[in-house]
Amino acid sequence: MDRSKADPVHEDVEMTWHLSRARKPDTQNDSRGVRKGPWKEKKNGSLPEYIEAGKMSDKMDDVQIGAGKFSERSPLGTSAQVEKDYKEPGPAPLFEVSELKSWSFWRAGIAEFIATFLFLYITVGTVMGTSRANFARNCSGVGIQGIAWAFGGMIFVLVYCTAGISGGHINPAVTFGLFLARKVSLPRAFFYIICQCLGAIAGAGVVKGFQKDEYQLYGGGANLVAHGYTKGSGLGAEIIGTFVLVYTVFSATDAKRNARDSHVPVLAPLPIGFAVFLVHLATIPITGTGINPARSLGAAIIYDNSHSWSDHWIFWVGPFIGAALAAAYHMLIIRAVPFNKRT
């Protein structure tokens, strides 16, 4: 073949092939006489076919290297990533006597009490104002959207203020879920729940002290299953609503995300507050939205109505089930690989 009349594209391909062979010499043959490496002998193969075979071999090498970085089989409940580029905090001790002697332990409980007190005061006061406007049939109330904003906005503010002191739980269901995930110890979880309940009772009591007659007339912000819904529907709504909240808490405070995204710790209260807001929009017509046993308990004790007490168990059982499901989902599914490779 006359080189002067050769196809310039073919010449470029041939030159690339020769340079590649010069960079990657391979003269070893296997037992069948087939050359090893990226360049495989192929009968009547053209230059582009040789080049394509080399590219495919390089890609396969990359895949094998990447596949070998992680183990193919991981038992249930173990981390998916073998080599972590972040520091995972260890599990909290179940019980430690020295914790009870530290000021940070008691300070955290006080922070939970004050935060829950402020939460009930603002939110129940908003509910009372809206109920008064609805009773008077005027447009001065904020409506369901305003109530939802009050709950979500206060959670955003209070989590931001107390996250560095107590973690900003402000909810026994959140504390219970974090306890199941070994994020807090048993004494701390128990102490938090007591402080949250006492703060909720105090907050609802202050609202009643400011407007005693209206408080009893408009329901006191107590949670109960609305007419037209069964107790099973109310329980299901509380389970799903609390699942959304606690799942958001786990995701917003995840150590892996905090290490890789520097803005996540700063913005963590925002998605938690939005989760509370959205859940209230969905479940206010069904149960008045509990998803917080302390909030439901405080309003029920101060209101003290037989109807609210008959449904009160829903606002403890539902949130605790939802919190347990969210903790299990995050620890076993999101942060671990419960699948085995099919053989």
UniProtKB/TrEMBL annotation:
Residues 1-47 are annotated as: Disordered. It comes from Riccia fluitans. It comes from the Eukaryota. Residues 1-15, 23-44 have a biased composition (Basic and acidic residues). Belongs to the MIP/aquaporin (TC 1.A.8) family. PIP (TC 1.A.8.11) subfamily. It is a multi-pass membrane protein. It is found in: Membrane. CDD domains: MIP. InterPro entries: Aquaporin-like, Aquaporin_transptr, MIP, MIP_CS. Keywords: Membrane, Transmembrane, Transmembrane helix, Transport. This is Uncharacterized protein. Coiled coil: none annotated.
